Amino acid sequence: MKALTIWTALRRYVQRSIYRKILLSFFFIIFLTITVLVANFYSRTAGDLRRQSIETTERLTQQSADTLGLYLNNVRNFAWSYFGDKDFQGFVLGLGSDPVAYSDYTGKFNQFAQDNPIVTEIVVSQLDGFSLRAGSSTAITSQEERERLEGLASEENGKGAWQSSQTYDRQSGTMVNTLTFVQAVRNISSYSPGPIIGVMTYELSYSFLQQWLGEAAGGGTSQFYIIDWENGNVVYSEQQAMINQPMLDDSEIADVHGSATAGYFYSRARIGGEASEGLALVAYKKLPGTSWMLVSWSSVQSLQQPVNDFTKRTLILGCLCFLVAIALAGVIARRIVIPLKELNRGLKAIEYGNYGVNLPIRSQDEVGYLSTSFNRMAAEINRLILKVYETEMVKKDMEIKSLQSQINPHFLYNTLGIIDSLATMDGNRRISAISQSLARMFRYNISGGDQATLAEEMEQIRLYLYIQQVRFEARLDHTVYVEPGIESIRIPKLLIQPLVENCIQHGIRPSLSGGTVRVEATMNEAGGIQIQVWNNGCPIDPERQEWLSGLLQAGYKSGLEAGASGEGASGLPRESIGLRNVQSRVRMVYGTGAGLAFESNPATGTTFTLTLGTVSDGEEAEHENDRA
Known about the structure:
Protein name: Sensor histidine kinase
Membrane topology: Multi-pass membrane protein
Helix content: 55-70%
GO molecular function: phosphorelay sensor kinase activity
Number of strands: 18
GO cellular component, one term: plasma membrane
Oligomer: single chain
Subcellular location: Cell membrane
């Protein structure tokens, strides 16, 4: 009854305020969303990561075991090659009596140790007699340890075997554990295996094994051990204190023996039989030719650490989202109270001439409708004022440009006429010819209309090339060709000159031997005009080709955006501006099917191809320009 009373009081407390309703709604929405997301992510990601970790650890263990097995088998095979060698048996019988053979076998064993850095020392000894030592070992094996190894080799009765051994490391000044391969040598005859006459021992490098185990672990969360397959004791480890300590309990050893030679399981056992703090993933694979297996030990907690970290970050982010949601709920509650105050401030702003005021629309009720209507009215007034202002500015700018377009070209044209007259009086025909060509080019530029015939445009190109011919003399040769029947087709003015100028500046000018510029205008199969500008000067380097391709591909859009915003293209090189403008003008007149393309290589030169669409497209564009 008391609980019901408290619940009723809480409901009344919440229902009295919409602010509290919003806060409570946000609380449940965020809490439910975060809970579902975190639970779903953890259930999916944790399982995937656990499987990936197991597969990665198992694969790494198998690859490491295969690599170590290759090292061990290489040593075994080398030792076995001498086991049945009659000459070597004779050498062991008379060890120390033949200096030439002693030197020869010493060289062979030294070469094997040099080719296989895992082997640090090779010893061939008679039973209680002379011995041969080879390799680069810095360790010393005691006489007792060597006698133990020779006894183990004799017990194997001619079969090679790997054994754990101890040696004194002179660099560290301590006893260290390593691995040694022992192989008895028999005096084999055609009738019997013969008696044992000596022993071969191949001692592995302690430092190499330490380094290899560290590299196999990769500096990660895994640790590698060489474990006895039969009793689960550590045969070799980076931590010398762990050697000969039990790692697997009886049940785990039974599971390993009952499964394949490779696999994995989970364990809580630890070195010396102590229980670990958490569950560990143990992956193993038997080393071929030995009674050992390579085992990797990885803490499950460390493998799942990324998932745990992400879960913590998700919870923190969820709490932050909750706090932000509560703050937003407070803002929403305030928006219900203050719209009328904002409308009053907006009216005062209009009175003071601030027509750019814009009230936020906080609701769809009557107050929201008033705010919307106010914003629409203020925006319309502001738009009309700006339109009148912009119209006046554009009108003044056009008047100024009109005056400049009338004064500047005529002034330059008259100036060129004076230069021509002076050059003729002084007998300088080259200056006179250049002045006349420039005057004709200026007259063409200031003539009315935005379009000209193809013949007029090509004449303009001939004048330009003539001026460049005077400049470059014998370094420049040029041809201009127009297919008969298309001379009267009208195209945008000054469309081809930027392409020819680009060829001169980047193809002919940098070339010491100069080159040829060829301009051709033909009609393609689709009925459109195709203009090709070719030169055999310096080609365009691949990096600049890629840049130009991107520029031309975006040229039309960039041109429109620059024109709309009133911005220039001062950030681009002059010739790049010209090429981009050509692309923009062609596509604005003829559509996106037309445009500028190029190809360049040292073998065939550089060709710019300008496709202008069909003749009907050009005529239609001309009429549209005339109407404009």
